[in-house]
Fold:
Amino acid sequence: MKNGDTVLGLFQGMFEQNILTFNPGWDQNAAGLSEFDDVREIQQQLKQAGVVLDNETDPCGSGPANIVLTDPDGNHILIDQHC
Structure:
């Protein structure tokens, strides 16, 4: 669903629990951005802030990757870079 610049994806049965996703490198229309924070940079910033990640990516890699963390209410947060 889309309203202005806000996009809400509904996925019934795709994930076991609630999940919030962010896609670095994409705009609201899933078009590539020329500048964005790479998921590995985001991972490094979160870890330096003491955030525990459930799933990490290779910090020396490049291109598509993802990380997962859990918020205080138990909801998963997926940061999923496709480019």
Notes: The chain has a mean pLDDT of 92. The CA atoms of residues 58 and 64 lie 11 Å apart. Residues 39-48 form the longest helix (10 residues). Strands lie at 2-3, 6-7, 19-22, 65-70, 76-81.
